[in-house]
Amino acid sequence: MTTLAPTAPAAARRPRHPYLTALATARGRTGLALVGLVVLAGLLAPLLAGHPPTDQSGLTLAPVGTPGHPLGTDDLGRDLLSRLLHGIRADLGIIAVAVPLGAVLGCLLALAAAVHPAVDTAVQRAFDLILAFPGLILALAVTAVLGPGRLPVVLVIALAEIPVFGRLLRTGILAQRSREYVTAARVGGTSGRRILTRHVLPNAADPLVVQFAVSLTVAVFLEGAMSFLGVGVRPPEPTLGAVLSQSMPHLAQAPHFAAGPLVTVTALVLGLSLVAEALNREIRR
């Protein structure tokens, strides 16, 4: 007769991480599915695109379903599917560098501000200066100095995100420093640096995760707006904003020209927003 090994009680099982719990909700799964679909399309662009994104042909403004051009062609005869997929790839590459760069720099400045009041004052004034410029005005100022291109887009997005992450982390540090456990640690002789790194920062970091997802959404809009205005990535390299900008004069004749980038941006922004909302709901519980 065999005996079954006793199973561990439910209370003894390791609890699921709150971020995983948030992403397992309906909002989280839907958001991840939308973002994952767009990201996968961008990563597989060289395999999925049947033509190079800059190759021109004599077949201009071809409709959807044209043989060899599933989404048609643009006004210069370039394959829209290829330009859309490579535009996704370009946008993802930009925001994948710019948003983490802005987050890291903002958090480092917040940590520096937490060390000394004089540094805090200087950092806050620097944040005020950056926030005084709306995103597009900041973009125009940077591109007026550096000219259009990929690097200025990355710099603009990173600069716009530095004060957002910096002030969010600073607020969290100040809130945690007033808690009783910090006072108890000080009375127990724990050094200020250890309190900051081992106790305050882990408890102040949760809002940063939500803000990261939100900032990715803002970065998509900002890059698209810069490319739409002609101060983003230089043509003929495709981005979603550039493809949308090129479609404007042909909306009446070829509405499918603008459909691809609009649907893609909507899916990406909606997915990131759902992920951010799911994370925020779980953190606030």
Automatic annotation (TrEMBL):
Domain of life assignment: Bacteria
Compartments, record wording: Cell membrane
Major place of residence: membrane
Topology within the bilayer: Multi-pass membrane protein
This protein's record includes keyword GTP-binding: no
TM stretches of this protein: 31-49, 92-114, 126-145, 151-169, 208-233, 253-276
Domain ABC transmembrane type-1 intervals: 88-276
SUPFAM superfamilies tied to this protein: MetI-like
Protein name: ABC transporter permease
Family note: Belongs to the binding-protein-dependent transport system permease family.
Chain coiled-coil ranges: none
PROSITE patterns membership: ABC_TM1 (PS50928)
Keywords attached to this entry: Cell membrane, Membrane, Transmembrane, Transmembrane helix, Transport
Record flagged with keyword Transmembrane helix: yes
Entries under InterPro entries matching the protein: BP-dependent_transpt_permease (IPR050366), MetI-like (IPR000515), MetI-like_sf (IPR035906)
